[in-house]
Structures are given as C-alpha cells and as structure tokens.
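Write out a record, focusing on structure:
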Amino acid sequence: MQELDIQIAVEAEGWADEAELERLAGRVLGEAARYLQAEGKQPFPAMAPEVSLVFSDDQSIREINAEWRGQDKPTNVLSFPAFPLQPGGMPGPMLGDIIIARETVEREALDLEKSFGDHLTHLMVHGFLHLFGYDHIEAGEAERMEALETRILAALGLSDPYAGQDPV
C-alpha cells in the first residue's frame, strides 16, 4: 500500500489540535487510499502522493466557494484536484486540496443526528474521492461515488450515510 503525504493546515478556531487532526486524516484518508487500491479502482504513483487538508470556517469557505464556484454561501467541503483526473486514472504526485468548514460540519451533524467526528470522517472521504475525479452531478456518477463512500466508511466502522436517500 502506497502511503499518503498529508499536509494539514488549521486556519480557524474551534478545531481539535493539529496532532489529533493529523491522526484522524491519516486513518481516514489512508483507509480510503487502501480501499481504492485494493479494489483495483485507483492506481497510485510510485512516490507518496500529497494531499493538502485545510480545516477552515464558514467565512473562508464561503469566499472560496463564491470565487471558484460562483456560489456565495458556505459549504461543508470543497475539493480542488491538482490535475484533472477521471476515476481510475493515474494521479500525479500532488492529489490536490480539501477544505472543510467547521461550522457547517457542526450544523449538518446536528441535523443528521450524527457525531461531529463521524460526519467529518464522511466529508474527508467525500472530498478525497473528488480528488480522483469522482463526482455526484449525474445520478449514475452519484450512485458510484456514494457506493464507494459507503464501503470506505464501513471499513472505518461507520454506517451508510446515504441510507434511505436517493443519490444526490
């Protein structure tokens, strides 16, 4: 199994300490990478691919969302692949950036009646899959991405976050 080089930046108040976030990211993204490789869904480059994980807030992610997606509102997670990639394609040494907004994750976790940690784990996996070209715009793409998320989360001991829902 190819390891990941995970770069962490905590850019907002209210997050756990950086060491704890590094451990969580290593466990979650490491399991996602292992799953993708083991299932033959994703090749990895010879050297450890790098992913940047930014722990932000609603204000910052709102500005980024407005600038890059034309949506002037906060969102839970944004992913910016370093290079365009189709699912199953060979990534470069830099996978890209995942940005997560704490307040939105907290609100959603409460609404979904899930723990903050479980919802954060789901969003890390979700953002990570976006870096590999997975998306959920079309129904077929959504089904494929959500099925992968569900299987990766099950390997992490979490239940299906989409149970009882139509693909997004």
